[in-house]
Amino acid sequence: MSKLIDILSEIPEYSSLLQKINSAQARFSLISGVQPVHKAHIVASAAYFTGKKCVVICPDESSCHRLCSDINSFLEHDAAAVLPARDFIFRNIEAVSREWEHKRICTLHGFLTDKYYIMTASAEALQQRAMPPAVLTDAAFLVKSSGKYSFDDMIRRLLRAGYRRSSAVEGEGQFSVRGGILDFFTPGEPQPVRIEFFGDEIDSLSYFDPGSQRRTEPCAEVTILPALETLPSYSDGGKEGLISSLRTLLKSKALLKNPAYLSTLEQDLERLSNEGIFPSVDRLIGEIYPGFASAIDYAPDDALFFIDDFARVKQSAKSCIKRTNDDLASLLEEGLLPPKHKGFFLDFSELLEKAEARRVTILDTFTAGSYDRPVRNVFNLSAKQLPSYGGSLETLTSDIKHYLSLNYSVLALAGSRGTALHLKEVLAANSVAAMIEFSGPQIPPKGTVLITVKNLSAGFEYPTLHLAVIAEGQTQTAEKRKKQTKKTAAERIRSYSDLTPGDLIVHEHHGIGRFSGIERMTVDGCERDYIKLAFAGTDFLYLPASSLDLISKYIGGGSEDSPVRLNKLGGAEWQKAKQKAKSAAKDLAKKLIQLYAERKKLEGFAFPQDSDWQREFEEAFEFDETDDQLRCTAEIKEDMEKPFPMDRLLCGDVGFGKTEVAFRAVMKCVLGGKQAAILVPTTVLARQHYMTAMRRFEGYPVKIEMLSRLRTPAEIKKSLSRLKSGMADLCIGTHRLLQKDVSFKDLGLLIVDEEQRFGVTHKERLKEISRKIDVLTLTATPIPRTLNMALSGIRDMSVLEE
């Protein structure tokens, strides 16, 4: 959006501000009268015109993300990144999430190496102690597919950078070695990387899938980033120097008065000597990096600092210090930190002092009473933030007509190419001529409208320039969302089975037992954790924790009246039960295979790929879709595009968005030239779906009918005629839809809402209707057989969990 960046310099107040902050004399400036979208505009423009790196201090992380997204929209590339705060790990917890720490490392490295030149961060993210820039520069290294590297040296560098060795790489911060193959998962990469060595030469460099462990695609180069911010190997004197200084501290008289911390330090020394890295290594960060470094130190001396809403940032920083002090007091009491630790957070005055060493500009909507520093340069920008039209074309048309009457230049931002074309048609129908420019936004002449594809969180108006930018509002599309590892519905549901004492379990070899807890026992001189399982009588089995794969949670029947019988250890009962179940399963599997093989052989209709109308319909949804909605929609549309009938179950609780997913399938069906039907169990639900559909499909050529007892005989007769002739595209109905007199010209999709509320007769009629068409079943509570078939993979299933 370079044209929008350029035009900001035509405002005298902003031009004066730019001159001041670009000079070495100004240390503290203020620009007031600006809303969030203007703040993004100002920061993007300052970075663009001065060529200097910028850091924006925000009151919270939601402000960081909104501001970052808008800045990138103005600059038309990902020049800005968010620096998240992270949690310090002070307790010995083995299962530790390093997600935010890895994101911090990626952002700091990107800012250091000029991948990003704008960084948005909350006060907390800048207050907390960080890895010094020199350490990150040394710990990160580039590997090229055409390079020569010492295999042993690379392993040493990974260990020094905080990576953990494992048998197979599954998560970030792990590496494994098999012969001349080195696998590792570095922060910032979408998948783990595999290097195959031939001597010291790289034979191949590629990504691989951590689930299947198979290579996916080659890569030319990869930057290996450290796995942790706190790296003992990078302390003065290395890990050995750190161990030596800690041993000296261990002998100090001061610690004799603090036996709790003395014990903690002894444990840390032992783990440091044996393992090198341990989860709670953060409590030694002051010993490892004696000088206090924060993310501010990553900004060059001529960087520009911006504070988004001074009062809120100050309050946020003070709240962070209060929370930290409370947490540290508890940790000191437990003996997890030394009484005279070297600090983990800057207070607000220290943060301000570090930022002021560069140049600081406050971005405020209203001028506050005090800014803790004398403000030398004060500017007021005449600007207004406009609400997004969010798909409401009536609102957009009204606003555009208003600004044209004032002889404004109007730039309308659409979320997609299809929306832009549709917007032009709507404006033309309202006697408003508009131009379209897809190559990039230009500033139109006064009294004219230009439509382009771009998204901002809100529109804005500059009265002095007679310019209005009207935005649809920032929404996440399927393409922009982070790709996630695909999991089947069965895997997602099974992952929630956690054992608690008293739960029934099934042992692969011994049958049904009861989980009694975990006990630590010494066997053959080795101390290990064992799972205690109770069986019939007084029999107990102690299973090593490493053999957890031999048991699963019991999911069968049983009640207070007929409790489940436990099996006897070593008895033949369990083997007989297994054999009987295998025989029954084989019979069932044979029948199901025949049933579904026949269905696969049936010739169905392969719906075409998504059209512009389909994409526009989906983008007109007034809310941000959840990841689950996007995934389920993609799964359903993929099935619809196959040449055999779809039979998919969409499972999700009330309010999780099943109806919107179903409507997208309906739109695909109608655009493919077929009719769709939605079968519901009650009249109330039929009317509710009908009203929702009328609103959702408004403005699109989809003719909708309803069949229920609320309709008069004449209305039903007319609807039946329209369905038979093909004049109706979608019919929503109750059991009336299943009667013999209902016929469609070309039915392509049947959606059944709450299948379990229909009787046997209705289901037989459903089978007759749906033999060669696509069927989508919506439910919040699937019947056991349907759910079991879905979980077994026999029937396709999509799950909404968000």
Question: What does this 3D model show about the protein?
Answer:
The strands form six sheets. A seven-stranded parallel beta sheet has the order 3-4-2-13-14-1-15. Strands 29-30-28-31-32-27-33 form a seven-stranded parallel beta sheet, sandwiched between helices. A six-stranded mixed beta sheet has the order 6-7-8-9-10-11, covered by helices on one side. By secondary structure, the protein is α/β, with parallel strands linked by helices. It contains 24 helices and 33 strands. It is 36% helix and 21% strand. Helix 23 (760-769) links the parallel strand 31 (747-753) and strand 32.
E-strand count? 33
- Tell me the Rg in angstroms: 32 Å
Described by its quaternary structure, the protein is: single chain
Separation, N- and C-terminal Cα atoms: 35 Å
The amount of helix comes to: 25-40%
Q: Which structural category fits the helices and strands?
A: alpha/beta
Helix and strand arrangement:
Elements: H1 2-8, H2 12-21, E1 28-32, H3 36-50, E2 54-58, H4 61-75, E3 80-83, H5 99-112, E4 118-122, H6 123-127, H7 133-139, E5 141-144, H8 151-160, E6 164-165, E7 174-178, E8 181-184, E9 193-198, E10 201-208, E11 215-218, E12 221-224, H9 238-250, H10 259-274, H11 285-288, E13 304-308, H12 310-334, H13 348-356, E14 359-364, E15 377-380, E16 384-386, H14 393-405, E17 409-414, H15 417-429, E18 435-436, E19 449-453, E20 459-462, E21 467-471, H16 489-494, E22 504-507, E23 511-523, E24 526-534, E25 540-544, E26 551-553, H17 573-601, H18 612-619, H19 627-640, E27 647-652, H20 658-671, E28 675-679, H21 683-696, E29 704-707, H22 713-725, E30 730-733, E31 747-753, H23 760-769, E32 774-779, H24 784-791, E33 796-800
Parallel strand pairs: 1-14, 1-15, 2-4, 2-13, 3-4, 6-7, 13-14, 17-19, 17-21, 18-19, 27-32, 27-33, 28-30, 28-31, 29-30, 31-32
Antiparallel strand pairs: 5-12, 7-8, 8-9, 9-10, 10-11, 16-20, 20-21, 22-23, 22-26, 23-24, 24-25
